[in-house]
Amino acid sequence: MYDFYFGSKDEILADPKTFLLGVKRTLPRWANSLPDSEFLILIDLIENRVSKQGPVFVETGVGATSLLFIFYAMLRNGRVISWDTNSSKASFIRSVCADALEAVTGKATASHWTFVSSMSLAPHTGMEILGELTDRIDMSHHDSDHTWETVGNEVAAVMPYLVDKGIVCVDDANQTTKHTYEPIVNMVRRKAGLGPIGPLPDNVCEPHILTVPKLLAEEFETVTNVTGDFAGDLEQDLYYAWYGQDRKRMAEVGMERFETIVDRFAAWEVCQRRPS
Fold first, then answer.
1. What are the counts of helices (DSSP H) followed by strands (DSSP E) for the chain?
2. For the chain, which residues make up each domain, given as ranges?
3. For residue 114, how far is the Cα from the chain centroid?
4. What is the tens place of the pLDDT at every residue in 228-270?
């Protein structure tokens, strides 16, 4: 189904950004929740800052990001480890990889992608098993439950394995919920014909774009923001126009925060692990 023709192998390898964006734009909305602007920044980071030899990518939340991480893992003899509770979406992404990526790289998806069907922080199957799967992480991307309780613990889980100049990326970094992601709760309740819940006590915190670097600085001497010109890319992002009605309804419950949208995505490079 996804064996569209995006050019010859040589053309694709000469311009992977155009190829990957083309594949992303063929995805249905339920597997494509990432704005094009964020997708392109991730490609730039991988192209310019991630090891060309055997990189390890870790992500929470399967979708468009999985495609680009798997593509670069295939090209560079690396590996992707993903957590998501939706195994059906993972199966769909696997089929897209088979049609769109394997023909270009000549590599098998299964040889480079480990999918863990679990909540990211679940005992025995969550990110606590990272040490059983890898001894290094070159880049992590966090896009699961957008509370600080989850994001903070996910980042803490990858920190022991980050290489020097490793990169940590956070989607929806402008969110400010502490323990319960009220926006998704209210979206589910709206779909069920129920009214919204009121603001929960002790559930507001600083946006993750401020708290993540503080957490990283506890372990690393140098934490550098490497987000790039995300704000500039947002201005020309067709994603928001194409899914305009959907994004508007998400904004009504706080899932999309247009007032701080330039802080929606952030990435940091870490260097010089502090002595234990």
1. 13, 7
2. 9-177+208-273
3. 15
4. 988 888 878 888 888 878 877 877 887 788 888 889 999 999 9
| Sheet hosting strand 162-171, strand order edge to edge | 113-117, 79-84, 56-60, 137-142, 162-171, 265-273, 220-225
Q: What is the average per-residue pLDDT within 27-44?
A: 94
Length of the chain: 276
Kindly state the greatest CA–CA separation across the chain: 56
Q: At what angle do helices 64-75 and 16-24 cross, to 10 degrees?
A: 150
135 burial type by CB count under 10 A (0-12 exposed, 13-18 middle, 19+ buried): exposed
Q: What's the predicted TM-score (pTM) here?
A: 0.95
Quote the DSSP letter at residue 229: S
| CATH class entry, domain 9-177+208-273 | alpha beta
Q: What is the pLDDT of residues 99-123, one digit of tens each?
A: 999 989 999 999 999 999 999 999 9
> What sign does the dihedral 113-54-97-143 (CA atoms) show?
positive
